[in-house]
Specification:
Number of helices of chain B: 5
Largest sheet of chain A: 7 strands, mixed
Order of helices and strands of chain B: HHHHH
Strand order of the largest sheet of chain A: 14-13-28-27-26-15-16
Radius of gyration of chain A: 29 Å
Number of strands of chain B: 0
Largest sheet of chain B: none
Oligomer: heterodimer
Structural class of chain A: alpha/beta
Radius of gyration of chain B: 11 Å
Number of helices of chain A: 30
Largest interface: A-B, 29 and 20 residues
Number of strands of chain A: 37
Chain lengths: ~950, ~80
């Protein structure tokens, strides 16, 4: 199966957004009859039959504005010349779009625009792809009677502060498309039209440089600009693309669809795909702009091996690397037993890649020691939703939020971690949906332009379950439960048990107020608001899962949704916001040690039989090691070999001292990655990875949407990642013979009931598919559990609140919680190798003014953060976003050592680490911690060993 | 493996599954959980530790590991 590129052309633009009405209206445009939904603009109705009315201020991604006056038309019986963008069709309307009168007016409008526009089209970056230029041609502009000598804006200076785009106000026609895009699409309201009349101009925040303004660099303004006023720097440097392919972003769990616009083998720009069902033509700073890491000089493109982590690396052929690895793994198994090796799949890799890694572990290694990084983020989601609703996945499509009346966000920060979905959510909030936020920290959505949370339940870290129980108590005590839904859809006995448990006084908001720190009346009011809403939707993130009671909290959320009948239709649901691009997919693909693809337990003989027949091996019936168990077993000398694809456990996993001790104890660690990441510094084999631009496959986003990933450039090291796993399996004596990832997906579909109808041909046809996709749902399933739950009846589970062991003491009086920021992604291996560093070049520790003052800490001071696990030093940012007693940091830079401080506490059910609660002390210090100093020394050593290997490689080549 | 940690995990499972209402059901739930999510070696190591040091487990976790030991004759034999 080979990819056929599409010739570059601007996406079709029908001028105004589609109308939603089911009622149809028929009109005549230039003698052509056209039937469209009621509410459609005249401009769009005309465009649907190929009649393109000239326009500049209109675009179908924004509401009609009616300012440019180019789109005037004549309407039989109507006075004057209405703008076709703001005029809605009526039955029987007769529209004339072209005649001499209209042509004269349009030409005059263009004359006025062009009299104040540089005539440098031949050297303009958007030459040939400029709507203003197109309109000059369309209206037949031949002369500008006003001349060019009058007052103009041609000397206005460019703003080049943003690393990704340039603002050239001399080319601006003040159409407001950028301002409206910032408002309507992104919802940031960073841009405005400053001044009046001739002085009108686009301004960022208080007329500041873009980089210093509130602009979040999503690029919506750049995409909306009809001229070269806002232009991607890559386009300025490289010129226009000549072909493109549709692919899927490799960053967060939103899974935005993009057009990778190409010139030869180089990406010119990434343009969010209007037809993308997760993003509808929108993007964020990471997806649109931060792809430069794929060609960064740090990419490693030769396989390397070494005997010890203190030995120099040796560049070798792929064949030698596979043979070396296979021999090592076999020797280890011969010496220490079958279960002494395993593998880790990655949520950054494709479905097909993770499927192959788990297959390699189960079939070639002969054990179930396979796990995925979802272990350390959303494993409680898998456990909790399976236990209550019957399926380990979110219940809705993202678009469902547009029907929500009350939204609860728990432990998530969508504007930073899921920005494109956050924009959609903000649109709904501006339409009037109510908002409840449960978070120890005041995230941006608590209060931002045109958004204000009705309730911010600012609980103490670690008390989620107490809070959700208190909310459920209030619902039941005030008789707000959905009796009919519960009776028809849920298990009766379990509900009665739960009801009795929740109504115990210990679960009342008043009884739990001391634990949560949230006033009981606020809890009751928020519960009332959610339970009384026609549609109440819950969105949650890692602030729910990464706790010692992560799984309990997920079940508590599901209980609350069932009790209020908020499941099984649009606008409601339980929606986990997945961190990385393929968290859902990596879990779906059987990456967990206890289950095969499709969340079927390894102990089920009938399921094992399916795989055994397909793979031609006997499978072990008992669960294998989870990631934290692997580390514990390695430290104990029981686990000796590990294959890690696309993960960086040395940076991302908690209790760094323990993790690095485990990695150091391994006799053979194989890392497959783009870069020599922190984990690779402990590796004996390095297998070069391929970026998302260099391979074919699929990602599955947080709404279960399977989307295609398409190879647009050749893999730098010669192999796509799935091919590397395949070759490694062969070297280990287990044949895999796929010629394309589509064949891997065909195998997944054969073996997994929820994927039965999925194929690359169908993905090409539909663009994307939300699983389950099978005979019962041929085109996929946007909303789950509509008539019944996947498990049949919904199961209420008891959720006793058990306080975490991680408590404040005199020695450690503060609670540290962790999170993410917009410009960086996870461990930062990708985004730190882009210009996104301009927004966040180091992790800082946020501390409340009260706590800072007590400790004599000022803004920017070095602060030592010390827990029972370790100590690190970060700069202070003093902010009242936090409550006193709580500090916060991010983990995007390895030298920050956030995970040196986090502990080995974990969720009781899944061992998902408790990143969100660590008891610490903070103190002003003058030097880096001991760990940081050792980290620097170790990094220097490892980079030296890498450089020496690369220098030797270059000598051999020359 | 660090059996102290395994004991801590077992106690944590027991504490979280214990709503105080039906002990037999809770014990069965804890035993099931360990069997469904732990490797046989982890179960075996905890059984051995519990036999050497019964107080390392809470009453419910102890009953659960006893149930696991009964279900696994090989592990029970040590």
């Amino acid at each position: 199966m080979s990819l056929t590129y599409k010739t570059y052309q601007r996406e079709p633009d029908l001028g105004t957004p589609a109308a939603e009405s089911t009622r149809e209206v028929t009109v005549t445009v230039d003698g052509v009859e056209v039937t469209v939904p009621e509410g459609t603009s005249v401009m769009r109705a005309a465009a649907t039959v190929g009649i393109n009315i000239p326009k500049v201020c209109a675009t179908d991604s924004l509401d009609a504005f009616g300012s440019c006056r180019l789109c005037l038309v004549e309407i039989e019986g109507a006075k004057g010349l209405p703008a076709s963008c703001t005029t809605v069709v009526r039955d029987g309307m007769e529209v004339t779009t072209q005649n001499k009168r209209l042509a004269d007016i349009r030409r005059n409008v263009m004359e006025l625009y062009i009299s104040d526009h540089p005539l440098d089209c031949l050297t303009c970056p958007t030459n040939g792809d400029c709507e203003l230029q197109d309109m000059a041609g369309a209206v037949g502009l031949r002369d500008v009677r006003y001349g060019y000598a009058g007052s103009n804006h041609l000397d206005m200076q460019k703003d080049t502060s943003n690393p990704y785009f340039t603002f050239d106000p001399s080319k601006c026609i003040v159409c407001s498309r950028c301002v409206r895009a910032c408002e309507e699409i992104q919802g940031t309201f960073a841009l405005t039209i400053a001044g009046r009349g001739f002085e009108s101009k686009v301004a960022a925040s208080q007329d500041q440089p873009f980089l210093d303004s509130e602009c979040v660099s999503c690029g919506a303004c750049v995409q909306a600009c009809p001229t070269a006023t806002l232009t991607e720097n890559s386009l300025i440097e490289m010129g226009g693309a000549e072909h493109y392919a549709v692919t899927t972003c490799g960053y967060c769990g939103v899974g935005c669809s993009f057009r990778a616009e190409m010139k030869g083998g180089e990406v010119v720009r990434m343009i969010p795909n209007k037809d993308g069902k997760a993003n509808h033509g929108h993007s964020c700073v990471k997806g649109r702009f931060a792809f430069g890491y794929a060609t960064h000089k740090d990419r490693i493109t030769s396989p390397m091996i070494r005997e010890s982590i203190h030995d120099p690396w040796q560049e070798v052929s792929w064949e030698d690397a596979f043979r070396f690895t296979a021999d090592k793994f076999k020797q280890i198994q011969a010496r220490y037993g079958r279960d002494s090796i395993g593998g880790i799949t990655s949520s950054r890799c494709t479905n097909e890649e993770t499927y192959l890694v788990q297959k390699l572990v189960r079939a070639a290694m002969g054990n179930n020691n396979v796990d995925t990084c979802a272990r350390v983020c959303h494993s409680p989601t898998g456990y909790g939703l399976k236990a209550t609703l019957g399926e380990s996945a979110g219940t809705q499509a993202f678009d469902s939020v547009l029907e929500a009346d009350v939204i609860i966000i728990i432990g998530a920060n969508p504007t930073d971690a899921h920005p494109v979905f956050a924009s959609q959510m903000k649109r709904r909030l501006r339409e009037g949906a109510r908002l409840i936020i449960v978070d120890p920290r005041a995230i941006d959505l608590v209060r931002s332009p045109h958004v204000k949370a009705d309730y911010h339940l600012q609980l103490k870290p670690g008390t989620n379950v107490a809070l959700i129980n208190a909310m459920a108590h209030a619902v039941l005590a005030e008789k707000l439960e959905a009796k009919a839904f519960i009776e028809q859809r849920c298990e009766k006995d379990a509900y009665e048990d739960w009801r009795k448990f929740i109504l115990e006084e210990r679960n009342s908001p008043e009884a739990l107020e001391a634990q949560t720190g949230v006033p009981a009346e606020q809890v009751r009011a928020a519960a009332r608001l959610y339970a009384s809403a026609p549609n109440g939707a819950i969105y949650y993130g890692l602030g729910v899962s990464e706790h010692s009671q992560g799984s309990t909290m997920v079940m508590g959320i599901a209980n609350l949704a069932m009790a209020t009948g908020n499941l099984g239709r649009e606008g409601v649901g339980v929606n986990p916001l997945r961190g990385q691009n393929n968290v859902q997919g990596s879990c779906d693909m059987g990456s967990f040690p206890h289950e095969l693809p499709g969340y079927r337990h390894i102990s089920d003989a009938s399921v094992r039989d399916l795989f055994e027949k397909e793979w031609g091996v006997r499978l072990v019936a008992e669960p294998g090691l989870r990631i934290p168990n692997m580390f514990d077993a390695a430290v104990a000398g029981e686990f000796k070999g590990l294959y890690v694809q696309g993960e960086d456990v040395a940076q991302s996993d908690p209790d760094t001292h323990h993790v690095t001790a485990a990695l150091s104890a391994l006799e053979c660690m194989v890392v497959q990655d783009l870069f020599l990441n922190e984990t690779a510094k402990f590796a004996h084999v390095f297998l070069p990875g391929s970026s998302f631009l260099e391979k074919n496959g699929t990602f599955t986003n947080a709404e279960r949407r399977i989307s295609p990933v398409r190879k647009v450039v050749e893999p730098m090291a010669g192999y796509e990642d799935w091919e590397v796993t395949q070759e490694l399996a062969k070297a280990m004596g287990f044949p895999m013979n796929y010629s394309h990832p589509s064949e891997i997906m065909d195998e997944i579909a054969r073996l997994t009931p929820t994927f039965k109808g999925v194929s690359y041909a169908k993905l090409d046809q539909l663009g994307s598919i939300q699983w389950p996709c099978n005979d019962a749902a041929v085109e996929g399933t946007p909303t789950m559990h509509i008539t019944e739950f996947v498990r049949g009846k919904g199961l209420f589970r008891l959720t006793p609140y058990v306080a975490t062991d991680e408590r404040t003491t005199r020695k450690y009086p503060l609670l540290l919680t962790t999170g993410r920021i917009l410009s960086q992604y996870n461990v930062g291996a990708q985004t730190r190798r882009t210009e996104n560093l301009r927004w966040h070049d180091e992790d800082v520790v946020e501390i409340h003014p009260h706590d800072a003052e007590q400790r004599g800490i000022n803004e920017g001071d070095w602060v030592g953060l010390k827990s029972r696990a370790g100590e690190t030093v970060l700069r202070a940012r003093i902010t009242a976003r936090l409550q006193p007693g709580v500090v916060y940091t991010t983990f995007h830079h390895p030298e920050s050592g956030a995970n040196v401080v986090t502990t080995d506490n974990s969720d009781w059910a899944t061992n998902c680490p408790e990143y969100k609660v660590t008891a610490v002390q903070a103190a002003k210090v003058t030097q880096l911690s001991k760990w940081q100093q050792e980290f620097e020394e170790f990094t220097d050593e490892q980079l030296k060993l890498l450089r020496e290997a690369q220098a030797r490689g270059e000598e051999v080549v020359s | 493996m660090d059996v102290t940690k395994l004991a801590r995990m077992a106690n944590q499972i027991a504490e979280n599954l214990d709503s105080g209402s039906n002990e037999a059901r809770t014990v069965a739930g804890v035993a099931d959980h360990m069997q469904r999510f732990w490797t046989p070696l982890m179960c075996k190591q905890l059984i051995e530790r519990w036999r050497e040091e019964p107080d390392c487990l809470s009453p419910i976790a102890a009953k659960a590991i006893a149930a696991v030991a009964e279900r696994q004759p090989a592990a029970s034999a040590g």
